[in-house]
């Protein structure tokens, strides 16, 4: 089956200075996929800084559910330009309302002290792990028409979850997950596009890792999951069209929220990025389901 190219999602239309519009993909979720707003906000922020500065971190809040049938407008605010660092704030808007805010910090690359106190886990090679989307391809006659229409928009990112079959079962297990991921198509070598692509993909299967601790399947109709905030730190350069290992775990859930943490390695075991997300995690009663 054909699929759109991931990099086209980050081709923003400039409306006027520091104001951009991005098209939306409908992935078949209840609301606009959060990773899209993350990736497009990264690209919007990059358009206002010198070419020699790269994002080293961003922190963001999701305020309202987005509408996947409509484009998103991004307003970029110049917060600060220093000798080594620049800060930008991005506001994502739909229907005249802010649905998301991001603050991104850029740095002029420099030499410094280096260490890595994180070991890449020993996992099967990606070529030996089944693609996540194979589950849907094998059960095409059992999935809804809405899901079938959304599948092409899931294909641009090749995701292969270690022991992925367990992800579709209501089985209590440790809230940990490991998966390989990469873009299916060749991606520009520009750092902005690769960081935007990783920000986009970093939201896949992230919050649902916390569900594993509760013996529930992510498809459970009584579950309510939604991202509240999402932060990333970029440590080293990488190419998103090459394999990256995403290691996730959830150390806590409670008060209707769950926290998840992630480490992202390249094939050589170099830690290229880290991520943290907190999200809504609720279970409603059957009679409350519309």
Structural summary, described in words:
The model has no long low-confidence stretch (mean pLDDT 93). The protein is mostly beta strands. The chain has one domain (6-109, 130-288): Acyl-CoA thioesterase, double hotdog domain (Porin, Beta Barrel). The chain has four helices and twelve strands, in the order E-E-H-E-E-E-E-H-H-E-E-H-E-E-E-E. The protein has a twelve-stranded antiparallel beta sheet with strand order 1-2-4-5-6-3-9-12-11-10-8-7, covered by helices on one side. Helix 1 packs antiparallel against helix 4. The longest helix has 13 residues, at 34-46. The protein is 12% helix and 38% strand. A hairpin with a 2-residue loop joins strand 1 and strand 2.
Do you know the CATH topology? Porin
Structural class: mainly beta
Helix content: 10-25%
CATH architecture: Beta Barrel
The number of distinct β-strands equals: 12
| Integer count of domains | 1
Percent of sequence in beta strands: 35-45%
Main β-sheet: number of strands, strand sense, barrel status?
12 strands, antiparallel
Radius of gyration, taken over Cα atoms and rounded to an integer in Å:
19 Å
How many alpha or pi helices? 4
Mean pLDDT: 93
CATH hierarchy class name: Mainly Beta
Widest sheet, order of strands: 1-2-4-5-6-3-9-12-11-10-8-7
Q: What is the end-to-end distance?
A: 33 Å
């Amino acid at each position: 089956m054909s699929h759109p190219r991931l990099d086209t999602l980050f081709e923003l239309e400039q409306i006027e200075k520091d104001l951009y519009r991005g098209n939306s993909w409908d992935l078949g979720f209840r609301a606009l996929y959060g990773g899209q707003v993350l990736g497009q906000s990264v690209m919007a922020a990059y358009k206002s800084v010198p070419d020699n500065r790269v994002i080293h971190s961003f922190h963001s809040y999701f305020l309202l559910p987005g509408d996947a049938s409509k484009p998103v407008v991004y307003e970029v605010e110049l917060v600060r330009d220093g000798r080594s660092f620049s800060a930008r704030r991005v506001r994502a808007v739909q229907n005249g309302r802010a649905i998301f805010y991001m603050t991104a910090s850029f740095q002029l690359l420099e030499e410094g002290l280096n260490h890595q106190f994180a070991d890449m886990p020993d996992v099967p090679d990606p070529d030996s792990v089944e693609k996540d989307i194979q589950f849907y391809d094998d059960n095409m006659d059992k999935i809804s028409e809405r899901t079938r229409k959304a599948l092409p928009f899931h294909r641009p990112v090749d995701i292969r979850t270690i022991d992925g079959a367990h992800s579709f079962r209501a089985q209590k297990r440790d809230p940990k997950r490991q998966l390989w991921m990469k873009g299916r198509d060749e991606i520009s070598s520009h750092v902005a596009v690769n960081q935007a692509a990783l920000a986009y993909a970093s939201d896949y299967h992230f919050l649902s890792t916390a569900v594993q601790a509760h013996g529930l399947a992510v498809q459970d109709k009584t579950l309510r999951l939604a991202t509240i905030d999402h932060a990333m730190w970029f440590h080293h350069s990488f190419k998103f069209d090459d394999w990256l290992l995403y290691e996730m775990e959830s150390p806590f859930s409670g008060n209707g929220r769950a926290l998840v943490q992630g480490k992202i390695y390249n094939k050589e075991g170099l830690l290229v990025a880290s991520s943290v997300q907190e999200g809504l995690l609720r279970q409603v009663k059957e009679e409350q389901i519309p």
